[in-house]
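Trying the structure run again after the queue cleared.
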Amino acid sequence: MRILLIDDNKTNLLFLKKLVEKLRCEAVTYDTPGDLLLAMPALDYDVAIIDFQMPVYNGVELLLEISRFEKYRDKPAVFVTADTDIATRMAALDAGAIDFLTKPVNPLEFQARIRNLMALVDARNKLADKAEWLRTEVEKAVAELRAREEEIIERLTIAASYKDKETAKHTRRVGFYSEAIARAYGLDEPLCTDIRLASPMHDIGKVAIPDAVLLKAGKLTEQEFAAMQQHTTVGSDILRESQSSLLQLAASIASSHHERWDGQGYPLRLSGSAIPLAGRIVALADNFDALTTVRPYKEAWSVERAVAHIRERAGSQFDPECVAAFEEALPSIMSIMLANLDEGRQIEDALVPTGKSAAA
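Done. Tokens:
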């Protein structure tokens, strides 16, 4: 343990140093307050023993200067003084002193008081170490829990892909597009990441849709379209009872990504800001990917045409602010598309304008 000694009397300083060494501690000595302050904040010590009467700075003034450095504010300080005046001692206590030694210093009293302080410092250090250990363990447990949540989402995405291979590719792209839009919208980075992780679950409810409807090559009948709409509520039902905040976000997205800004969407016909923001963002990403990729019932649209389509529907189908964020995020979205060229020619074809018409 390192004991700081500050006394302008070199004889007293040497005496205190020998007493400290008898306690098998390291003495860090200074005979002027100025030299001590120049050594801060690089200086390390555990307990400070400060002479009260010194030139330039007295003990109280020196302790106040030391306390300007945050790293020293919790360090115990003992004053050495011949002054027994109560006002002097109160001033020292107000400055942060926790004990006094009266001159001439009694060696036995010195060792007893400093030994007690050393035990206090040791206990405090152990408590701080334990608190740090607990903090590290909590962070580790949270990270492990988060990893499990992400794995659950990945496993569910894989499960959904057994029914429709293209759905798995679509959901991954929608996740990255949604993150880019959320970032351009100005959301906090952790939330942007959560949206990327949760949004691939937006179509998880399609596991309950009959293959005859889900994989139909032509236009859906009214009855088939009503059945297809059920994937939003089924997806929400699958996810919403989870205690995981990430899966709860996924449930909200699954339920709301087909709602419309004007209230004409499904399943609840929510409108405007009543639609969860994550759902509004994913609605855009989902629509853009659907337009620019081949589906059983349509060819891929060009990016130019898809962007125009989305822009025209700002304020009706889509949140206008989300559309603005989508347009700002287009360079990132295009990079994501290019990075996924190996997932199919349909994306590559969508990168160049075509004159062909396609159903939405």
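The CA atoms of residues 177 and 333 lie 6 Å apart. Worth checking whether this holds up in the mutant runs.
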